[in-house]
Amino acid sequence: MRRTVTLVAIGMVAAATPLLLGPVAEAVQQEDRPVRQAQQPVESGTMEIGTVEDVGKTLSYLTSAEQTLRYPGSKYVKVHFSRLDLLPEDYITVSSPDGSESHRIEAADAPRWSTSITGDTAVVELHTAGGVVSDVMSRYGVEVDKVARGFTDTELAEERESHRRTESICGGDDQQDAVCYESDEPEVYDNASPVARLLIGGTTLCTAFRVGEDNRMLTNNHCFETTAQARDTEVWFDYACRECGGEEVRDVVKVNGDEVLDTDFTYDYTLFTVDDFAKIEEFGHLTLSDRKSRQGEKLYIPQHPSGAPSQIAMVSDADGGACRVDDPAFDGYAADSDVSYYCDTEFGSSGSPVLSRDTHEVIALHHFGGCPNSGVRSDILLDRIGSML
């Protein structure tokens, strides 16, 4: 059986409805929550980015100790275990065929998801400490009931084309691979490193970034809002092209979300931690600005639009050649809560940092499309979460 999964994307709705780009966007429908007073029609909808497929494979102490799950052309394979009955010293690995990526799972409560494997094939293997094998061990073993697998290039292209809109790509699409700025704009390039791609529940995409020196990540409330959701979220660092305009992607560093420290609907933020901070410290961090932005101030946005490898929006043909602040006090869910701009964004860009070209500080947390697009002001965020950074 195949079940389609989705990434919140773009589709026309009434002018008073915000454009949200994450899995809890349905919360907007609650009557007791504020409604954004949009200045023009905006969009909301869905875009497929993968499927969940039933598997029904067993790894047994008495029979098969290895299963290979292959989905030709898929971007990732994420394995779900419905049963994990292991002896104390035994464990499971989920690996790429060449072993370059491998994730270890020891005895744990099931059901649960593994960390995804980049590429179209995952090898699931039961590792045992050895000893006598007897019939009593028939009650032990592992069951894989389903996988989440990413769409192929062809499927992704078809989906992106069928959902393509101009309301968040303002004019032509001026985004470029982050690596394109490595030589000419080294500080801009470096500030894409703390920006991560989120894979939420194996199916849904947003963006997040390291904020401050400690174990702190920031994304949108409409991407996720609970610790349970955070722990079901993969945080991908260094998901970026090796060359400008190239196809080859760097080796991705994956950690999992851990604890939600604070979240808020009106200002659309979620502050959370990851489970293995030491693995991502090398990617650096960004700083929230404590000031209100200036009209006309030049901007750039490192992001993962449509879940793509790291992109930067810095040029804007819709705004005189450079991304810049259109309105430093734009109405979001609250009056004057946002900064608006015509920098290009897409599905999956929710949770991206909007940075000043002058100071390289974060002046907004991107969350809405509609041309102008907008993000929550950093000075407001700092007042609310500064003591936790």
UniProtKB/TrEMBL annotation:
Q: Where is the signal peptide?
A: 1-27
Name the Pfam families on file: Trypsin_2 (PF13365)
Keyword terms of this UniProt record: Signal
What InterPro entries would the database entry show?
A: Peptidase_S1_PA, Peptidase_S1_PA_chymotrypsin
The answer, when asked if Signal is one of the entry's keywords, is yes
- Kindly provide the name given to this protein in its UniProt entry: V8-like Glu-specific endopeptidase
- Report the source organism: Stackebrandtia albiflava
